Amino acid sequence: MKPRTDFVKDKLKHLKSANLYRTLVYNKISGPYITILGKKLVNLSSNDYLGLDSAHHPSQIQSSSRLIAGNDISFEKLEKNLARHKSKNFALVFPTGYMANLGAISILAQKNDLILSDELNHASIIDACKLTRAKKTVYKHNDMSDLEKKLQKKSQRKFVITEGIFSMNGDYARLDEITKLCQKNNAFLLLDDAHGDFVAGRDGKGSADHFRVSKNVDIYISSLSKALGAFGGYIAASKEIIDLAVNTSRPFIYTSALPSFLAELALERFQSNREKNRLELWKKTRYLSDGLRSMGYSIESQSQIIPIIIGDEKKTLEFGKYLRNNGIFAQPIRYPTVNLGSARIRVSVTNWLTDDIIVQSLDVFEKAGRKFGIT
Ligand SMILES: Cc1ncc(COP(=O)(O)O)c(C=O)c1O
C-alpha cells in the first residue's frame, strides 16, 4: 500500500516541475521600503494605496497577502512556537480559525474522497467540507460504532474531522478511539481544537494530548482568539502539508495577512506564564460545574464550556432573560447552532470569575432552576 501522504508529495512535485511552487519569505515593511533577507528594497507590492498605514504607528497593518508582501517576520517566531506546541514540524497562521478550517480541509479532500464529520462539528468545519468536491458523511456525535461503520465505505481517501472539545457541548471527542479507527482504516485525522488548545492536556497542548494520542493527528486546526486571548487561527502539520497549504490553500493565499501586531500579541500571550492560569481555570470550572450539579442540574460537560440543556427554544430564551434580569449574561443557544429541541444556555468559565462571582452566579442559577422546573 502507498503511504497515505504520497498524494501530497505528488502535488508538490507537480507544482515544482511546472515552476508554480511558492515559498514564504519573511519581511519587514517600513513606509515605502520592505526588508527581505536583510536587503532593504522599495516596496512596489503593497495595497496600502493611500499610505495611511504609518510605519511609526504601533498598529501597523501591512495590508497584503502573506505570499506577496504581508509575511512579516513576526509570523516566523509565532509559527515555530505553535509547531513545537503541537509537536509538528510546521505551523501556518491564518487570519482567523474559521479560515484555518476552510484552508485545511480544502487542500486535501478531493473528488472520490470521503469526509466523515461529527454531527456536532462547528459551522466552519461544515463550510470547509462544502468547499471540497469530496463526499461528505456525518456520523453521530462521538458514536464510534457509527464512525466505524461509515469508515467501511469505499473511497479513494478518507478523512475524519472532529472538534477536540465540542464548542456547544463541552465534551471531549473520543480521540483515543477515533485515532485507533483512523489508523485501522488508513484515514487522515483533522482535529479542530479551538476550545481545547491551551486549556486541555499537559501544558495546554490540547485535547489530543489529554488522551496521549497527539502523534496520531495529521492536522491540527485551532484559534488564537479563545484561550490565548489574542486573534487569528492556525494549522499545524507535517512540512509537506504546510507546504501544500502555502501553495494551494485559497483562504490563506487570497486574503490579507493577519496584522503583524496581532501575531506579536499571540506570541506574547503564548510565551506568558500560562500554566498558572490554566490550572486556575480547571479549579474554577470544577467549582461552578460541581455547584450546578449539586443543585440538581444535569451537567455532562467535561470542560470550561458548560451547557445547561433546556430543550425548548421559548423556555430557553425565557431562562436567559431571567438570568439577565438577575445580573447574569449567559447566551441562549438555539437552532441552527444546535439541533432543534436541544436549546441551551451556554456557560463558559473564565479566570475573570472570582469565587464571589461564582457564588453569586450559582445563587441565580439555583433560583432559576426552581422557577423553570429544571432542577
Ligand atoms: C470549534 C471552532 N472552530 C473554529 C472556530 C473559529 O475560530 P475563530 O473565531 O478564530 O474564527 C470557532 C469559533 O467559534 C470554533 O468554536
Quickly describe the structure:
This protein has 375 residues and is α/β, with parallel strands linked by helices. It is built from 13 helices and 13 strands.
Q: What is the average per-residue confidence, as pLDDT, rounded to a whole number?
A: 95
Number of domains: 3
CATH top level of the largest domain is: Alpha Beta
List the ions, cofactors and other small molecules found in this model.
pyridoxal-5'-phosphate
Helix content: 25-40%
Specify Rg, calculated over alpha carbons. 22 Å
Give the biggest sheet.
7 strands, mixed
Order of strands, widest sheet: 4-10-9-8-7-5-6
- Helices, by number, come to 13
Global shape: globular
- How many DSSP-defined strands? 13
Tell me which CATH architecture of the largest domain applies here. Answer: 3-Layer(aba) Sandwich
Protein name: 8-amino-7-oxononanoate synthase
GO molecular function, one term: 8-amino-7-oxononanoate synthase activity
Keywords: Acyltransferase, Pyridoxal phosphate, Transferase
EC number: 2.3.1.47
